Task: structure prediction
Amino acid sequence: MKKYIVVNQPDKWNFSSGDISVISSKDYLTNPQYSLQKKARIFNLCKDYEYQSKGYYVS
Result:
């Protein structure tokens, strides 16, 4: 199972692991590759979760 850490600014994350990818909230919401995956675990570590923010829609 592929795992994704979704954050506002992935360039500030110095994290590397074979099966975990750090991606931006914009990429997660706009790139169809993520919505087409059948099995994926998403960790939403966006900076804010208020209504109509990117973090809200990632969740």
Summary: The two ends are 19 Å apart (CA to CA). The chain has one domain: 2-58. The longest strand covers residues 2-7.
